[in-house]
Amino acid sequence: MSRMAVPISTALPVAHRVHGFTYAIRNIVAEARKVEALGIGVRYLNIGDPIPFGFETPAHLVAAVERAMRDGHNGYTPSPGIAEAREAVANDFTHRGLVTHPDRVLLTSGTSEGIELALGAVVNDGDDVLVPTPTYPLYTAVLAKLGARPVYYRTDPDRGWLPDLDHLESLIGPRTRALVVIDPNNPTGAVYPESVRRELVAISERHQVLLLADEVYGDLAYDGPVPPLGAIAPEAPIVSFSSLSKAYLAPGWRAGWLAVGRSPRLDDVLAAIKKLADGRLCSPGPMQYAITAALNGPRDHQVAFRAALALRAELTTRRLNAIPGMRCAAPRGAFYAMPQVTLPPGRTDEDYVLGLLRATGVLCVYGSGFGADPAGGFFRVVYLAAPDELSSIYDAVADFTGRFLAAS
Ligand SMILES: Cc1ncc(COP(=O)(O)O)c(C=O)c1O
Questions:
Q1: Ligand 1 test: best mutation among 25, 112, 309, most atoms within 8 Å of CB?
Q2: What Å distances lie between residue 315 and 66, 330, 351, CA to CA?
Q3: 134 touches ligand 1 (CB under 6 Å)
Q4: pTM for the complete prediction?
């Protein structure tokens, strides 16, 4: 039989769903690489990782992982995670006002896997999920993969990026499966007051819609840790997600957890999540031991980290608000700000961000990468760099913005 000549340029097909899966925070790095190839140094303010900026993982967490590896804990763990860490998570919730049981806790590869497992467990093709705009983009990316529809509820920069609750409630319909709440928030730095948090829980109860509470920045509100949303109403239909990535300074470890609310209404959801989790065997094993160490051990590093972040938030807000044509709501937690530049007609947030990158090497992410209107002129700044470095970055932003607005 003669061998058929297959042109090596023929690309093998990929699935349609890949086209709907976008994650601007990483996608924009391709543009940064092109700028670097031209010999311009890039200052990466696109990704929320404290480690490259000199913040260090607490030593007792590193020791816990080291010890686990040396003690031979290098095999698969049970798929929901090791018992002692699940217990530490359940105790931590209990101390924060939400009594729960280790059976309702699962260890995950970061908050990200928790989000993907929960959405996979409750959302069908064609269903709706309420997502804030702007949003952390993993939600919309996973929904695209599942063939589900993100329905955006507004959050308002003029009110510290708080959600518009009337708008949110008006969007709930028969196909609404879940409501995503990110508090403290990425990409806006908002921290919701108690009244808003209560109302969000009440809406989920009124409409029997599962509330997905992304609490990965819960310990990084500048006024002190925010209790879990479920503490407001322990029987409410809430799944909470968090990890060691941000408040425990270990994003690369992929050590996270989720906790399913204790209401029996959620028993099927819990079983579905566990079933899906069985398929991925377990989250990284040695890092699960660091969860125990983190939640049972000292948290002094968080005091210093919050203070460092609050200082940078103040600097960021002051410097950006001083730029003509720009305004920035003050972040109250996490390490993100979402300033707005008044765009000339016909220009987009991407034009501004790519222009800034090419002219100055400063890499931010355009607001439309988080679901904002491209004409709105929003972009996200990660302010983890040292204050001096941030100051010099904001000099460059001011200089470029002046030229961009004058030329348009
Ligand atoms: C709101 C939000 N949720 C989830 C994640 C993912 O975190 P993890 O590293 O725990 O997967 C991030 C990371 O930036 C985030 O900002």
A1: 112
A2: 38, 10, 25
A3: no
A4: 0.95
